Amino acid sequence: MDGILVAYSGEIFIKSERTRRNFERKLVDNIKHNLKARAIEFQLKKMRGRIFIRTNQIKEACKALEPVFGIAWMAPCYHLSTSNLNEIVEFCRKNYKHWLNVGEKFAVDARREGKHPYTSQQLAREIGNVIRRKVDLSNPDKKIYIEVRGDETFIYLQKFNALRGLPVGTAGKVISLISGGIDSPVSSIRMMKRGCEVVLLHFHSFPLVSRASIEKVKELAQIMRKFQKRIVLYLIPFGEIQMKIKAKVDAQYRIVIYRRLMLKIAERIAQLEGAKAIVTGESLAQVSSQTLQNIYVIEEATSFPIFRPLIGMDKEEIVREAKRFGTYEISIRPQEDCCQLFVPRHPTTQAQLKKVLEFEKKIKVEELVEEALSMAEKIVIG
């Protein structure tokens, strides 16, 4: 094998020419970053809908490309510096015994990009004629893929599906609230998959509780670096503010007030970072603060768009994605969630906006926002 053939996500391919070029440029940058981070030696060539990465470290390179959003699939491949039909056929005749065991059935999947003195069907037929194995187009044991692109040919036997999506950095910047639990890391990575650069924001109640959530979020941020080359994480001490809320807000309404205050702080950080939206890990009706009525009341606290990538997913679906992204084992470790501090067993599921605004007058919300921002810690990872 000579390297890896990479196929763009179909979403990139259908963009306008100018937009597609920008997306391709960002995808190439992200690929190069991941390969260099693993000290992989490579040469890269961009083609229409494809990227060819020439490297001797194929296994390591495939591993490096796995978390790159914008890739549809990748394939370890042979590269021929020719589009000559006879030369392609001869290469396959000499090598097919390394690809197909005796008794295995095969099919040839041939396609071309550019002008050639033969059709894709003729190419597939000529290759099939020199392979002394049984052809089965309906149910082959293996496929031999041939792509002729201009004056070059790529031959591969396996395609490995990738994460698809859009290259990180093509869709703007967002602030994502991350608790350290299962849901919020998944919602953050889902926004990366849509091309967003994600800035993480974590609220904690240390020293009223342990540092467990802080350490978990730092570990989760390290995992997210696989998907986004640089992670900015804000840590906001929230415990003293919660004590002030506890003194003046009915217990049933505290979690709604907490969440509204978090959005107000997130909005300010978004303005500092040049972000255009706020992301949460809410799933409709999963917990008391995520009923439709409470979401309505909480969202009123900010004028920023709020994205909820998990809103229609159930817990099992979210857990599957957490395992797929590699965040699950960290997320399930015990921690004290700041949103549960000073909250009764049965908080309200039907908060009334008028009552919430009355409570916020008592606690002087804007002063609390300024207090939180003055204590913010910014960490850059990567």
| Assembly state (oligomeric) | single chain
- Helix-and-strand structural type: alpha/beta
As a percent range, the share of strand residues is 15-25%
> How would you describe the shape?
elongated
CATH class of the largest domain: Alpha Beta
| Average pLDDT figure | 95
List keywords for this structure.
382 residues, alpha/beta, VC0802-like, Rossmann fold, nine-stranded mixed beta sheet, six-stranded mixed beta sheet
Would you kindly provide a written description of the structure presented here, covering whatever features stand out?
This protein is of the alpha/beta class. The protein has 2 domains: 3-164, 2-Layer Sandwich (VC0802-like); 173-381, HUPs (Rossmann fold). The chain is 41% helix and 22% strand. The chain contains 14 helices and 15 strands. Strands 1, 2, 3, 4, 5, 6, 7, 8 and 9 form a 9-stranded mixed sheet that branches. The chain has a 6-stranded mixed sheet with strand order 14-13-10-11-12-15, with helices on both faces. The radius of gyration is 26 Å and the shape is elongated. The model has no long low-confidence stretch (mean pLDDT 95).
